[in-house]
Amino acid sequence: MIAYIIRRLLYALPILIGVNVITFALFFVVNSPDDMARMHLGVKRVTPEAIQGWKAERGYDQPLLWNSGAAGADKVRKTIFFEKSVKLFAFDFGRADDGRDIAYEIINRMGPSLAIALPVFLVGLAAYVTFALLMAFFRATYIDFTGVILCVAMMSISGLFYIIGGQYLVSKLWNLVPISGYAQGATGVKFLVLPVLVGVVAGVGASTRWYRTIFLEEMGKDYVRTARAKGMSEIRVLFRHVLQNAMIPILTGAVVVIPLLFMGSLITESFFGIPGLGSYTIDAINAQDFAVVRSMVFLGSVLYILGLILTDISYTLVDPRIRLE
């Protein structure tokens, strides 16, 4: 198992390097530091002195890849690529344009993001699998037919509708919870109820329909017909065989999402005023803070690759065939 994990990590390293190089090209080649300065200064006729001052203040006045004017190893170190991209592998994110330490902001904002994303993931996964099993158990009946119609209808509705509708109905009309805001500790639970509820409801349609398809596919296989022929009850077939053999596709969707929980939800956090990583990214985009955006892109890539590795490892835990290979 250890050798397998090491091999998967080695496979992931070239992918991460490729993402880093592409990100660097998009930020500093396609969109040069001079262009970034003009966008940030926000004036039509900006002077060359202002551009040079903006670049010098943020460390963008160095050569991109090779500093011919430096000596020794500084030819590589004294470049934008080393300062802004290579250091990301050591999780040295530097400072934002407003002077704040990006790593410090990420650590502090990770908690609020997890406070919403983790309950949505756990409650949602349990609810979606339960609803899908119920529809599969009553397949080809009015319960299944009605459930499919509701799932398709909920899939067709934008997530913004659930957010705005939930805020109006639960917060403004019924006055059950605050419409937005965030607080630490037990007092902050009231601010999390509505975002979690909206997140779970918004995913019912797509997730339940997907899990239902997985269960129905398993129920049509030979081993299920053999179990029924031996006199096993339908409920036992569903939970003893179908659910167990459907764990691989379920884990594919579930485990990959776990690392991305740390990144937060861009839309949900912005609408509910949650100071998480999602709203941090949105604020950085609006403020044209390229250092923050670049750091969040790299962090998202790392977490996604870790999610894929966790998915492969989880396969070996639920499928003996993969473990033997």
Write the layout of secondary structure elements.
Elements: H1 2-30, H2 33-41, H3 48-58, H4 74-77, H5 80-84, H6 102-137, H7 142-155, H8 159-173, H9 189-202, H10 204-219, H11 222-229, H12 234-245, H13 247-260, H14 266-272, H15 277-286, H16 290-318, H17 320-324
Helix pairs in contact: 1-16, 2-3, 6-7, 6-9, 6-10, 7-10, 8-9, 11-12, 13-16, 14-15, 15-16
Explained architecture:
With 325 residues, the protein is mainly α. The protein folds into two domains: 2-90, no CATH class; 104-324, MetI-like (MetI-like fold, Orthogonal Bundle). The protein is 73% helix and 0% strand. It contains 17 helices and no strands. The longest helix has 36 residues, at 102-137. The N and C termini lie close together (11 Å). The model has no long low-confidence stretch (mean pLDDT 86).
Short description, anyone?
The chain is an all-alpha fold and 325 residues long. The chain is built from 17 helices and no strands. The protein is globular, with a radius of gyration of 25 Å.
What key attributes describe this structure?
325 residues, mainly alpha, MetI-like fold, 17 helices, 0% strand, globular
